[in-house]
C-alpha cells in the first residue's frame, strides 16, 4: 500500500472525543470494520499514519490495535502490516440472533421501527437488569422487527448511557442497536437465555396471534470489559419460530 492510499484510508475515520485516545481509536477502527467499509483481509492504515493523523504516540495507537487484535478483529503480522481478520464476521455475530437475515431469507422486506424511546434511571423498575448500578442513566427502547410491514419480532431494550452516552441521539432505524453498539464497544462478555412466555393482550395484538398464545423469548445481556452495555428481550411467536444451534469441532 503506497503512502497516498494509506493516508486516504485514514482520512475516512474520525475520533468521537469521548474518553482516552486509545479507546477512541479502537472505536473508530471497529466502526470501519463493523460497517463493512473495511472487509476481511483489508489492510488498515499503518501505525505511523494513524499516530500522525490523531497527533498521538505510537504506544497509544499500538494499544488500540492490540485490543482489537485480542478481540479477533485484526491480524497483525511483522513486516506485513495489520489486516482485518478473516474471521471478523463470525466473531461479530456469535451469540446474536440476526433477525434481519432471518426475515430476508424468507423473501420478505425487512424493516426496524422504534415504537417508543425514553431516558430513565436504573432502579426498582429495571430489576430485569440487576447487573447495572442503581442510578445509572438508561435508554429504554421498544421496537418492532417487521417483514413486508407486518411485525414478526418485538424488542424491548435497555442501553447503559454510562457505557454508550451517544446512544440517546442515535438513529436506530437507520442502524439497528446491535450494529451501532458493536461498532463502538467491544463485547467481552455475553449472557444469552431462551425461555417461553404467554402473550399479553398487547403483544398478541402486535404479533397477530391469539391471546395467551405461547411465545419464544430471547434474553441477552452484554458487557464491555466490566461495564454492562445492553439488556435486550426479543419476543417471537412460538408457532412460527425455532432456535437451532450446532457445534461441530471437526468442520473447518
UniProtKB/TrEMBL annotation:
It holds the Pfam family GntR. Residues 19-87 form the HTH gntR-type domain. It comes from Aminobacter carboxidus. The keyword Transport does not apply. It comes from the Bacteria. Keywords: DNA-binding, Transcription, Transcription regulation. This is UTRA domain-containing protein.
Amino acid at each position: 500500500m503506497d503512502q497516498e492510499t494509506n493516508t486516504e484510508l485514514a482520512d475516512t475515520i474520525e475520533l468521537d472525543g469521548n474518553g482516552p485516545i486509545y479507546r477512541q481509536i479502537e472505536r473508530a477502527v471497529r466502526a470501519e470494520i463493523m460497517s463493512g467499509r473495511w472487509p476481511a483481509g483489508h489492510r488498515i492504515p499503518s501505525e505511523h499514519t494513524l499516530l500522525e493523523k490523531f497527533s498521538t504516540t505510537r504506544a497509544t495507537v499500538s494499544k488500540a490495535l492490540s485490543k482489537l487484535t485480542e478481540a479477533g478483529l485484526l491480524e497483525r503480522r511483522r513486516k506485513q502490516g495489520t489486516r482485518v481478520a478473516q474471521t471478523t464476521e463470525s466473531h461479530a455475530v456469535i451469540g446474536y440472533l440476526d433477525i434481519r437475515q432471518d426475515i430476508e431469507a424468507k423473501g420478505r422486506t425487512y424493516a426496524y421501527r422504534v415504537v417508543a424511546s425514553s431516558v430513565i434511571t436504573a432502579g426498582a423498575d429495571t430489576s430485569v437488569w440487576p447487573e447495572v448500578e442503581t442510578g445509572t442513566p438508561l435508554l429504554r427502547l421498544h421496537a418492532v422487527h417487521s417483514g413486508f410491514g407486518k411485525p414478526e419480532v418485538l424488542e424491548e431494550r435497555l442501553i447503559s448511557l454510562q457505557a454508550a452516552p451517544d446512544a440517546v441521539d442515535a438513529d436506530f432505524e437507520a442502524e439497528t442497536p446491535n450494529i451501532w453498539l458493536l461498532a463502538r464497544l467491544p463485547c467481552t462478555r455475553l449472557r444469552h437465555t431462551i425461555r417461553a412466555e404467554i402473550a399479553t393482550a398487547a403483544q398478541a395484538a402486535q404479533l397477530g396471534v391469539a391471546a395467551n398464545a405461547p411465545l419464544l423469548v430471547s434474553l441477552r445481556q452484554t458487557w464491555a470489559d466490566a461495564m454492562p452495555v445492553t439488556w435486550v428481550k426479543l419476543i417471537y411467536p412460538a408457532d412460527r419460530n425455532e432456535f437451532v444451534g450446532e457445534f461441530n469441532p471437526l468442520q473447518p
